[in-house]
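User: Okay, second chain of the day. Same drill as before: sequence in, structure tokens out.
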Amino acid sequence: MSATSSLSAFQSQPAVARLTALWALSEAGLGGIMHFFRTPFTGLVVGGVAVILILLIGHLAEQKTASILRALFIVLLIKGLVSPHSPPTAYLAVSFQGLCAVGLFAVFRSPTVVGLLLGGLALLESAVQKILMLTLFFGNSLWEAIDAFSLQLFEQFGWVGLSNTSLWLIAAYTGGYLIAGLAIGWWGGRFARRLPSLMDQFTPPVVTEPGQAPDYPETSAWRRFWRRTNGHFILLALLLVASFWLDDVLNYDPIILLLRTLCAIVLWYGIVTPLFLDLLSRLFRKSRMKRGQELDLVIQSFPQLRALAMHAWKDSESLRGTRRLTGFFTRLVVYSLHTELPASAPVSAVHAGKQS
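Assistant: Same drill. Structure tokens below.
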């Protein structure tokens, strides 16, 4: 498929193009910021938004598999271009969400059923991924330290017989993500069904000056390394303090723990991650030559989408609690679908260019 025909296919469904732009903005903007500051529950927030947007793309698209795969590829490309500091696990999570949606839409047609399964699987994968990464960096020593510390603490209060605290923590963490994913997926399914009536309920604001796309300066390799690893160094320090305190109980050398964890961090962030991102950037450079117009149109829509997000947040200020969040997101999606964004506007321009 040529670049022009690919662009025309992308623009032939304006709603899908706009939702793709929102998904890309969430991953590259919101996800990039949360990964940069190592914000807790990044996977829950960004993954939850992605689940709803992917669900809407599949629900509205005529060719569900092709539309979701095209949107997934564009989002991965833009994520690599705009937020290169995101870890490889973030790209794996996004890929899992998109491919999982393709499989579910191939079997089920109900947006509620797809939403429940997609939300549960996507956020469960995010939780399991974090637990596996902690085990990779710190080994079983982390969970042994948690068990030994909690056992001594429980014995001081006379709670004899309580053990395997780490397993309970893992179960609570993954269970919480699973429940949140099911709730988000259920709400997303209802949202998809109610979308036609919501389109008539909210009037979008007029955004006249979309502004310029943001400039993301390059940072040094060492600074990127430190930003990615500072959270792990803090956790390592806490684990070392606990291991010295519980040395007799755990029966291992804290220095070995230090060396093992440092080697794991350097291996992952100093070797594996740069190699992965280098391979990814080569793929992106080749793909950008083929899909450059699509990427440019999506990126050009970011300032306008951010302006719509500010209007949606202001328009939902009368709501409280979780209703404020759902009201904000509902308005943002409806405003985006109503507004003619650069990512869906120039279809006629493309055909005019052909004729000329």
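The chain has a mean pLDDT of 75.

User: Thanks, on to the next one.
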